[in-house]
Amino acid sequence: MSDSSNEIQNSIKSIAANLVVIAAFNVGFAFFNFTLFIDVLILLVLAFCLFKWKSRVVSILILASGLLALYYQMDSPFDAGGWRIALIAWWVLSGIVSLYHTVRFQKSDASAVHT
């Protein structure tokens, strides 16, 4: 494995850590709204899967679930003083960045096999 492949893997791992931090913030909000535990569960499962497999499918699921959460949050955008919408934006941004890095990782992995 090359250094760039290791850098990409480290980026993917840090994105998984970002998702865990977002889940931790959502645990704090879940004390006031128990339905947020669903978001916490989704984030933790997707973070684990991204950390373990570094899959494009998981990255697409992260992005799709973030966009779905953003859609449903638009009913009350100032819930929790706007922090909730900021966390969801962070979630969507993490999904975009994870998709970028997993595609790069798959390409670098495929090019390493062919050389």
Q: How many E-type strands? A: 0
- Our measurement of the CA-to-CA distance between the termini, rounded to an integer number of angstroms, reads 12 Å
Q: Helix content range of the residues, please?
A: over 70%
Major sheet characteristics: none
Assembly state: single chain
Total helical segments: 4
> Could you list the spans in which at least 5 consecutive residues all have pLDDT below 50?
none
Order of helices and strands: HHHH
Report on this structure.
- The chain has four helices and no strands.
- The protein has one domain.
- The chain starts with a helix and ends with a helix.
- Helix content is 83%, strand content 0%.
- The chain is an all-alpha fold.
Provide the fold topology.
Blueprint: H1 3-30, H2 36-53, H3 56-73, H4 83-114
Helix pairs in contact: 1-2, 1-4, 2-3, 3-4
The gist of it:
With 115 residues, the chain is mostly helical. It contains four helices and no strands.
Name the descriptors.
4 helices; 115 residues; 0% strand; mainly alpha
